[in-house]
Specification:
The complex is a heterodimer of chains A (97) and B (393).
Chain A (H helix, E strand, L loop, with lengths): L35 E5 L9 H5 L5 E3 L5 E3 L9 H5 L5 E5 L3
Chain B lengths: L3 E5 H11 L4 E4 L7 H11 L6 E4 L3 H13 L4 E6 H16 L5 E6 L13 H5 L6 E4 L3 H16 L7 E6 L7 E5 L3 H7 L23 H33 L6 E4 L6 E4 L4 H14 L4 E6 L1 E3 L3 H8 L4 E6 L10 H12 L5 E6 L9 H12 L13 E2 L5
Parallel strand pairs in B: 2-3, 2-4, 4-5, 5-7, 6-7, 10-11, 10-13, 13-14, 14-15
Antiparallel strand pairs in B: 1-8, 6-12, 9-11
Classes of the chains: A alpha+beta (97), B alpha/beta (393).
């Protein structure tokens, strides 16, 4: 969006609120919805990629060395990665802010 | 000017959709459906109409499919009735919120329970605030003309909203009437192909029907509300243009014999022809009654009605739906709010009639007129608010 949502006037919206700017959900960071975050233990990780596959928000990325890390700007803390991780390398840790 | 043709009004409605060159139709072909989509299916199957005809598994899916085809930019038509309209209810809001100019012939019928297949306005009155533009028709000719006009109104860039053409179940949908059909060439000139503002197409991806946070939802709905309120101008324009092209003038509010009459009746749909007969019969006895009939129901033509009603002494509003615990019928409630806002000095009466297909003859309406005229007070005997015509007690 060209400006924050709470600054739009009704007549500035597109007809039917169509979003012409494809992929602009990137601008909306959902990470602050999170109450707990995934923490990964590289000693247990087998680089299987199940966490990456299951993440419903595409918030997990593979790094150059083959491990996976979470983008905390978008991770909502749902815990699916920790639930699916077979070697239990991911644990959910309560956020403290 | 082409000759009139005797035809069942449902079939005529589908011929009108064909004349409008609809490109997509989605329907669930089982009771309470009418011959409208059945005949369209025949036209498509016989190669007389080039359109995508999507058979779906329910009315909910029918309207969902219409949302999809309209979003791709196809001129979309469907029809429903009674329970079918209620099953569509959720998607009716989605069509209007997404500003998709779908046109639907709504054959107005009673709702179960008790089971009834007959006509009244229970279905449409439950769907009246779904954000669709709505007109009501008195006869088959109006149905045909309204369907053609509906596409032009709905697809106008200043509008972009879905539109319902209401016709009474059985008393219109299943009767044979003389109807004049405009030629294909004339309709093509009046109604050019739909030029959508946005389409779902991989070459230019967009998101439709997205999520709105509390920061945006109010502005989104207000923008939609302004669109339907402002659509009145376009409805009027299209009606006038139709009159120029085809010689039949329609108005937002139709009137009959209102100049001399202090007392006027108001109703929606085919009963208005019975009211006109009652008016003519009363005239023979030297009594003056008028008719004020909103053809446009959404957006509500409040200013136009106030202008007409300001010189009248008594108004009786007739409605084919039980108020369901409300003070009065839905049309009466709007009129009451209009009367208060405009400071009109008019006595109001509300009558419920014609539920589940019960006929109301002109003589019965004349009786109501006599009852109202005999008293200066509200005359309902059976209820503090509204009266129910013909109820056995």
């Amino acid at each position: 969006m060209a400006k924050p949502m709470d600054q739009y006037k009704w007549h500035e919206l597109t007809v039917g609120c169509v979003i012409e700017d494809v992929g602009n959900a990137m601008e909306y960071k959902t990470g602050d919805w999170r109450s707990s975050k995934p923490v990964s233990n590289r000693e247990k990780c087998t680089k299987c990629g199940l966490c990456w596959l299951f993440c419903p928000d595409a918030a997990i990325h593979q790094t150059a060395d083959g491990y996976y890390e979470t983008d905390l700007d978008y991770c909502k803390g749902c815990g699916i990665c920790a639930r699916e991780c077979k070697p239990a390398a991911i644990v959910m840790v309560e956020e403290e802010r | 000017m082409s000759a009139k043709k005797g035809m069942e009004v449902s079939i005529a409605a589908s011929v009108a959709a064909k004349l409008a060159r609809v490109e997509a139709i989605a329907a669930y072909p089982i009771t309470p459906q009418t011959h409208i989509v059945e005949h369209l299916a025949e036209l498509v199957a016989n190669g007389e109409l080039e359109a995508a005809y999507i058979n779906v598994e329910s009315e909910h899916s029918a309207m969902s499919a219409c949302v999809g085809t309209s979003a791709t930019g196809a001129r979309t038509f469907t029809s429903t009735s009674a329970q079918g309209m209620e099953l569509m209810h959720e998607i009716l809001f989605i069509a209007s919120g997404m500003r998709l100019p779908i046109v639907m012939a709504a054959v107005n019928r009673a709702l179960s329970s008790p089971l009834s297949i007959w006509g009244d306005h229970s279905d449409i009155m439950a769907a009246r605030d779904t954000g669709w533009i709505m007109v009501f028709c008195e006869n088959g000719q109006e149905v045909v003309d309204s369907i053609i006009m509906a596409f032009k109104i709905a697809e106008d860039r200043r509008v972009l909203l879905p539109m319902m053409v209401n016709l009474d179940g059985f008393s219109l949908s299943h009767v044979i009437e003389p109807i004049e059909f405009p030629s294909q060439e004339d309709v093509d000139r009046f109604l050019p192909p739909y030029a959508p503002l946005y389409t779902l197409h991989p070459d230019k991806p967009v998101t439709m029907g997205a999520y709105a946070m509390p920061e945006l939802y109010t502005e989104a709905k207000y923008s939609q509300e302004m669109a339907i309120r402002n659509s009145k101008t376009v409805v009027k324009e299209v009606m006038d243009q139709f009159s120029k092209e085809f010689g039949r003038q329609y108005n937002l509010v139709e009137t009959y014999n209102i100049d001399k009459a202090d007392t006027v009746f108001m109703a929606l749909g085919s009963i208005n022809e019975n009211i006109k007969t009652a008016i003519d019969l009363l005239k023979e006895d030297g009594k003056e009654l008028g008719l004020v009939a909103p053809r446009l129901f959404r957006p509500f033509p409040g200013d136009e009605l106030a202008q007409i009603l300001k010189t009248k002494k008594t108004l009786a509003v007739f409605e084919r739906v039980m108020p369901g615990g409300a003070m009065n019928g839905p049309l009466y409630n709007e009129i009451a709010s209009l009367v208060v806002q405009n400071g009109l000095n008019i006595r109001l009466e509300n009558f419920i009639f014609g539920l589940g297909g019960r006929d109301v003859e002109p003589e019965e309406l004349m009786g109501v007129f006599d009852r109202i005229s005999a008293s200066s007070k509200i005359t309902h005997a059976d209820n503090k608010n509204y009266g129910v015509i013909g109820v056995r007690s």
